[in-house]
Design a protein that fits this description.
Blueprint lengths: L5 E12 L2 E12 L2 E6 L6 H8 L7 E6 L2 E3 L4 H6 L2 E4 L11 H6 L14 H15 L14 H14 L4 E5 L7 H16 L3 E5 L3 H7 L2 E6 L2 E7 L5 H9 L18 E10 L7 E6 L3 E5 L6 H9 L4 E8 L2 E3 L4 H6 L2 E4 L3 H5 L6 H6 L7 E2 L2 E2 L1 H14 L16 H14 L4 E5 L7 H16 L3 E5 L3 H7 L2 E6 L2 E7 L5 H8 L4
Parallel strand pairs: 3-8, 3-9, 6-7, 7-8, 13-20, 13-21, 16-19, 19-20
Antiparallel strand pairs: 1-2, 1-4, 4-5, 9-10, 11-12, 11-14, 14-15, 17-18, 21-22
Helix pairs in contact: 4-5, 13-14
This protein binds adenosine-5'-triphosphate (ATP) and magnesium ion.
Magnesium ion (MG) binds next to α1.
Length: 501
């Protein structure tokens, strides 16, 4: 592989699914020793293009050349054997098996002259890959025992273990902590130095501008342009992706007319995490932000309020009365809802269609006697599809066939429809494109206008500043401070976030 030489060329790629033209005459050219970002809104066709390369989907038309030679992989195994690896947006691992099984599945090392798998060899091979990449995971750990972020690293290790020339990373950082992202970037740089071509898909603009050499932009299944990353700005990328100028990232801020507290939390301390002695109050109609570094206890705070994690001590008052919220079920009955950050992993009923996935948490609203009113359900689903611009041929489409970001929007809509008094949101816009983010902010504001209250955890500081009234800052499991979103700076928040680290 000679650096700078064209490694991969895809041209005229076209692919239709029933009711959607997912790709229309798309091209992509990736050079050896470079990171090539692929960008576009949810449903633009990024994952589909990569699945055509990888042999998961069969393209309807077009040509793919690897180092000048035309290839047409009919399955992912063939792609891997020819030096093309892919880390998928939706991890598809054998969770009951251990790490090394997952890496070597289908190509187990054999014992010399025997039809037996050499566990020892497999262990050593895995350790060799992990050491090279500085991944600290025991190859014998069962997958289901590890957090999603570590499973992601295993998947990356697997891609490297094939000695691939082309490595596709489809939203690799959506479940990684900041430290893990840095680690991943070191790995990517190492692979680039070796002459690999890395195709990097992400909605995180800062990451793209930092790590990539070139950027290809897609919109609605079409190829728009390819530019050197150094020539692009965030605003320019947004314009190219959305197809119009987007001057405002946030809708105008809400002026909250309500004055009374709806909830008060006192001395909340978790049993199994470092969350300790957190007290604050939430006003009716308020959008309250929660900032903090990874691991500062933001998610734990929401889980403890919602009864999804065990409390050791502390009280929660709603409308002045103590509520117990010991289990999610009890919390839902008390008017709470929690939208988790791992929406895709925890919330999707893959074989159900979009309507079923949307209404499933608010079914009692559509009951008349013992019958479900289908008109009402389809009206509610329609309103969510419109409100969030969910890209789908119909309500009856299986949720599995939606793009990753659109699946997330459906799950988000599901919880919006339960019309909770208190909505707890963990990273509500993760994996969601810029245009759709705006829609989600508006939905959150609409709830607040109706007197509902929202607590929103986010790692994106501009988002907290742009949408919330007040921001709580967590640090080392404790509440380090509270700031007024209109009279603070990112620096002030960062200083608070570092207080107990
Ligand atoms: N297996 C499938 N069956 C039917 N439609 C599909 C299938 N896979 C993808 N699509 C459709 O093709 C279009 C492109 O989807 P794709 O997953 O490539 O988008 P994406 O750019 O990766 O979006 P995201 O950023 O949300 O992941 C979408 O409209 C999607 O619904
Ligand atoms: Mg995708």
């Amino acid at each position: 592989m000679i650096k700078g030489q064209e490694l991969l060329r895809m041209q005229g790629i076209t692919k239709s699914f029933p009711g959607v033209k997912a790709l229309d005459n798309v091209q992509l050219s990736v050079k050896a020793g470079s990171v090539h970002a692929l960008m576009g809104e949810n449903g633009a066709g990024k994952s589909t293009l990569m699945k055509c390369l990888f042999g998961i989907y069969h393209k309807d038309a077009g040509h793919i050349f690897l180092e000048g030679k035309e290839v047409n992989f009919s399955n992912s195994r063939e792609a891997l054997d020819n030096g093309v690896a892919m880390v998928h947006q939706e991890l598809n691992q054998a969770l009951k098996r251990n790490v090394m099984d997952n890496i070597w599945l289908g190509r187990y090392p054999r014992m010399k002259g025997l039809p037996l798998v050499s566990e020892k060899q497999m262990y050593e091979d895995t350790m060799r890959v992990f050491n090279e990449l500085d991944i600290h995971v025991d190859p014998r750990t069962v997958m289901s025992k590890m957090p999603v972020s570590q499973r992601q690293m295993v998947e990356i290790g697997k891609a490297v273990s094939f000695n691939s020339k082309i490595i596709v990373l489809d939203e690799p950082t959506s479940s990684l902590t900041e430290e893990e992202v840095e680690h991943l970037f070191r790995i990517i740089n190492m692979l680039r130095d070796r002459g690999c071509g890395i195709i990097y898909i992400s909605h995180k603009m800062d990451e793209i501008l930092r790590i990539s050499d070139e950027v290809t932009i897609m919109r609605d299944g079409q190829y728009i342009t390819t530019r050197p990353a150094a020539e692009l700005t965030k605003a320019e990328i947004i314009r190219l992706m959305v197809g119009r100028e987007m001057t405002n990232q946030f809708p105008p801020k809400l002026q909250n007319p309500y004055t009374e507290d709806i909830m008060r939390v006192q001395g909340l301390t978790a049993q199994y995490s470092q969350l300790s002695d957190v007290s604050f109050s939430l006003k009716k109609g308020e959008i309250l932000g929660v900032a903090g570094l990874d691991g500062s206890g933001r998610t734990e705070l929401l889980e403890n309020i919602f009864g999804a994690a065990t409390r050791r001590s502390g009280m929660i008052y709603k409308d002045g009365k103590p509520v117990r919220n010991r289990t999610p079920r009890e919390s839902i009955a008390n008017g709470f809802a929690l939208v988790t950050e791992e929406r895709r992993a925890t919330g999707i009923f893959g074989i159900l269609n979009i309507q079923e996935n949307t209404v499933i948490a608010s079914l009692k609203k559509y009951l008349s006697g013992i019958l479900l009113q289908s008109k009402k359900m389809s009206a509610a689903t329609d309103s969510m599809i419109k409100a969030m611009a969910i890209k789908t041929p119909s309500q009856k489409t299986k949720i599995q066939s939606l793009s990753g970001g659109n699946q997330q929007k459906v799950i988000f809509g599901r919880w919006m429809l339960t019309e909770p008094d208190i909505l707890l949101l963990d990273e509500p816009t993760r994996g969601i494109d810029v245009g759709a983010k705006y829609e989600i902010y508006q939905l959150i504001q609409n709830l607040a206008r109706q007197g509902k209250s929202v607590i929103m955890v986010s790692s994106e500081m501009p988002e907290l500043l742009g949408v919330c009234s007040r921001i709580l800052v967590m640090s080392g499991g404790r509440l380090a401070g509270e700031v007024d979103a209109d009279n603070t700076t990112q620096e002030e928040i960062m200083t608070l976030a570092a207080m107990y680290v």
